[in-house]
Plasmid replication DNA-binding protein (Acinetobacter baumannii), 182 residues
Amino acid sequence: MSLLTIVEASKQFNITRSRIYRALEKGTITAQIDADGVKRIDPTDMIRVFSGRKKTRTTTEAKKTGVSEQNETIVEMLKEQLKQAQDREQKLFNEIASIRKDFDDYKALITYQMPVSPPTPPEQPEAKRTSLDNESDASDTAQAIQRNDIGRTDQNTQKSDERAAPKKHGLFGRMIRTLIDD
């Protein structure tokens, strides 16, 4: 390695000349005088004393370029992931739209009911209707009598059922009934 002048050393290591002169006065750096009378400094002494200022500067510059390259790759990866997410989102929107359409179709099928009206008998003249009504009333009464073993009408059957199973009342109702009955 060649020896550096004080000006060259200050430029390379980014240190002021006055700082180099102070280190020379303290004796931490040794200088050699060449044939022209110019002081020359060994670069290894500069590295040792000033803890590699030049290296740290180049290291930070290298870190900056490395970081910028990493940032670029991260940005590219994120762009790709964003594109994939947008594609997934579009597919999901399409699927949701399809499901909604199917749901609306099924809902329309479920709510749609054919109008079912009971068949209405044709209009009969008034005279015929009364005779038919009398016949149906008589058949209803005959059926009600047949359903009864004892021969009572439906009204009598209901009354006997009410007597057999009295209606249950709450405590307050029972107290009022006992007061009324007494």
About this structure: Residues 74 and 131 are 97 Å apart (CA to CA). The longest helix spans residues 53-111. The mean pLDDT is 75. The domain at 4-51 is CATH 1.10.10 (Arc Repressor Mutant, subunit A).
